[in-house]
Amino acid sequence: MFMKRDFTEEEMTEGIRNGGVAMETVLIYIYHHSRYRQSILTFIQRRKGSLEDAEDIFQEGISRMVVSIQKGKFEGNSSIRTYLTTICKNLWFTQYARSNRYADIVENLPTEEELEKGPDELLLLKERSEGLKGILMLVGEKCKKILSLWALHYSMREITKEVGYKSEGMTRKKKHQCFKALMNRIKEQPDLIKELLG
Amino acid sequence: MLMSEDIYFNRIVSYLEGTTSSTEKLQFEKDLQQDPNLQQEYQAYLATRAAIDDLALDQVRSTVAQIAQQAPEAKTFRLSRRVIAMAASFLMLIVLMALLYGRQQYSDKQLFAQQYEAPNWSPIRGSSTAANTYDQAIANMQAGKRQNAMDQLASIPPEEEVYVTAQYALAHVQLQADKAEIAIETFSRIVDRNDKRYQEAAGWFLILSYLKTGLPTEANRQLELMLQNQQHPYYQDALRLQRQLASFWRSF
Asked: Which residues fall within 8 angstroms of residue A18, CB to CB, at 6 or more apart?
């Protein structure tokens, strides 16, 4: 699965933006390339994090970077590595701040350079509301899978294979139904619409 | 679902996916401003997309977690501990070297070497046998024949005029020949003779002989005696040596 070749910045951004298998290939590359992973793991471990903490942050950082790039919020002004590092640093400092270790927080406040907190990352740090959690629970696992893969630009063929339907047509129809079902549930909650659009 | 909702839905999808003509696009935007139902549908559609984006994050997390399981094991960061250990070792090494250096610089032998200055010897050119013997001894001393020099100087009897001079030279040759213990006896004899020419110098070199022999306590005792007389020609030297003997470095 892992392609042992180097990606250019453009190829990585394009791969993530395209989604599907292309995105997964780029993510595998990032995961296997110490230039990305080890530097972030080291950064967190140097700041009182365990290896487990560091791995969790790295995973979450990659996930958020993918969504951010797919939403077009990454403009390519910095390298993928810098962007990912910034997200991971922000995640770590946010998580660290939540841990109530006040003394540690004061001692380890991020420097300006460390805290390159942009609005995109801050937006991504928002917690999922209870209202949304409730609605997503009602949608059903298969629908959630189809809709999320579709949102991540997986092709209908890839989604069909992933969810085990017989044809792409069936997948397309199911995706439409799932979308409508979710939308109808959201329409019932005007406050949730405001929250989601806020 | 009402038919109008389906129509709205399709129009919204076409508009957002950019599959409408420019005329349809303008019409949609105009209707959106005027039609509250379309506005409501449009808001709901966008909110649904936002909710799905949220779901997508979960999906990415799941994908990344699978990739993480296949990824090579990461190294636990131990650099800081290693660096601390290395820094501590280095610091200890520096401290140890400083202590050794200090100790060496303030050792008895080193202090002796710093203080000892051999006198300039010159022949007497006298007419007596003893004077001739002394001159020969000085010549041997300068030629590096220390044993010959010591034998000749020691052979000059106490009743001779050059005796104390010969004893003073003998004590120095003994000191230079690493026979400091014997030099102590010789210098002591000179001090006891109360010969003004050599008594004070012999007192100072007696202290240095004690140092070379590794008897700093005796050297200190002699220094204290010498420092009672501020007019002593070696007073300043004695004061400096006393401070050096009391140095912090010597405690190691």
From this structure: A153
